[in-house]
Amino acid sequence: MPLARCAGAGAKQISSDAAGMMAEHTIALVSFILTLMVFSYVLGDLPLIGVLYRVAVYIFVGMAAAFTLVVSYEGLILPYLQDIQNTETSWTALGNSADIYIFFTALLFGLLLLLKPVRSLAWLTNSVYAVVIVVGAAVAVVGALSGTLFPLLHHTVSIPANLVADFGALLDALIIFVGVMTALFYFHYQVRATGAAGGGQSRLARGFRHAGKVFIVTALGAIYASTLLTSLTILSERISFLFQFGVA
Amino acid sequence: MGRGGLSVFVAFIVGAIAIVSLLLGDNPALFGAGAGSEELARRLTLPGDVLLRLVVIVIALSVVIGIVNLLYVHIGRLARGKFYSAVLLASFAVTIAWTVLNKGDASLLEAVQVPIESALAALLFPSLALGGARVMQKRADVWGLLFVAVVLIVLLGSLPLAELAPVQAFSDWLMAVPVNAGARAILLGIALGAAVAGVRALLGQDRAYRG
Asked: Where are the alpha helices (DSSP H) in chain B?
């Protein structure tokens, strides 16, 4: 009996392994076909071949929309619905009853968004947009000030700890400071009036702007090179996948 | 005040409450060491919390409305015999059905979404390289030369060859100092722009919500 049981378990294991292998092969085959369909873009807008790229892109858009819908529902709307039904949880210090009001106000706002095509009620929809946009703007302002502006300015003007011992660090800190200031000056367009002929910039200002441009062009060149490297890495991975699939 | 002015009024009031709450709330140190400072900071946090929750749910609902609108548009196009809309609707339906029937199974994501995304990202390489070469052909000045020089140094610096050790060291310094300075300035410019655009929206100057 134990032998028969072992044989049964072994057969089950083999069949589950076979199913797993089958699923893996199917995934690889579908990936292979879709990768070739996207790469057909390189061949241009030829009859029949041009259709393949577009089909792949439309599949991608449909699938991305479906996944976004699922994530919005399962990740946001459903947990919030469960939260308002649970009296022990609360989003704010106001308690669970306030959560119910917030949720249904948001639902009402969502319904008001649907009134956009009705011209006479557009002011209601615009008021909902106003709430969403200004709260987003407030978050953006606070985020820009506390997340980027203050920390970056602090790092730019702060003096390295080992400054006296390391002359190189001092020079680097100085170059970064000058680079940031001149690059910011490059963004700032200020014209000095010079007589009736119109405006012009002082030599010092032009020098500052040129120095700033050097740093901006250097940064853009490095960003471009990094993007090239990233896309090249992905391209080589895709090509090696196509070859591996062909060999297997 | 007309109906059009209502959205500006709502924007100003809600914006003022949100920014005061987000800037001052949850920070008792701003209100001194008194006994009531913590309570005041907590109370100031409350309107911001409520508004953020409200807006997050509205944004989730508007994403759903956007997707429903996408489907509505493509159903209309399908009625006019557009083949690609049929592909989009079929892929949407299959994905929804798969997600409902196979909870937690990422096979469809691995088989379709990831390969298409990575193949599209891979197509970026020839497009970027060709685009960069064309720009250099049209603008062969000192700034173009500097740009090409930096690109070459960074690309050569990324090669794992012992002979290129000095180039790698120079590339590392380039990334740590001048590129760092330029990138910081660009980020500061973006942050200043975002702050100014945000303040304009808060003051009702932009009026993107007037329709």
From this structure: 3-24, 37-79, 83-101, 107-108, 114-138, 142-157, 165-176, 178-202
One-letter amino acid identity for A130?
A
Residue A149: CB partners within 8 Å, gap ≥ 6? B188, B191, B192, B195
Nearest chain A residue to B150 by CA: give it: A221
Q: Which long-range contacts (CB under 8 A, 24 or more apart) does A75-83 make?
A: A76/B56, A76/B57, A76/B60, A77/B57, A77/B60, A77/B61, A77/B64, A80/B57
A38: three-class secondary structure by DSSP: helix
pTM for this prediction = 0.78
* Nearest alpha-carbon partner for A184 in B194, B189, B180, B193: B189
- CA of B34 to nearest chain A CA: how many angstroms apart? 21
- Rounded to whole angstroms, the Cα distance separating B136 from B77 reads 42
Distance, CA of A221 to chain centre: 21
Alpha helix stretches (DSSP H) within A40-95: 49-72, 78-85
d(Cα A239, Cα A36) in Å, to the nearest integer? 10
The CA distances from residue A4 to A9, A28, A144, A236, B89, in Å, are 9, 36, 69, 50, 50
Binary contact (B118, A212; C-beta < 8 A): no
Residue A231 forms contact with B (CB below 8 Å): yes
Max distance between CA atoms of chain B, in angstroms, equals: 74
What's the average pLDDT block by block, 10 residues per block, for chain A (248 residues)? Answer: 56 66 82 91 81 93 94 88 82 78 90 84 84 89 85 78 71 89 80 54 83 94 94 92 79
CB A76 within 8 A of CB B57: yes
Helix or strand (DSSP H, E) at A199 = strand A199-200
Q: B-contacting residues of A 43-72, CB under 8 Å?
A: 54-70, 72
Exposed e or buried b per residue across A23-51, where buried means at least 16 C-beta atoms within 10 angstroms of its C-beta: eeeebbebbbebbebbbbbeeeeeeeeeb
Answer whether B45's CB lies under 8 Å from B26's CB. Answer: yes
Map out the domains of chain B as residue ranges.
Answer: 1-105
A187 touches chain B (CB under 8 A): yes
Q: Give the ipTM.
A: 0.81
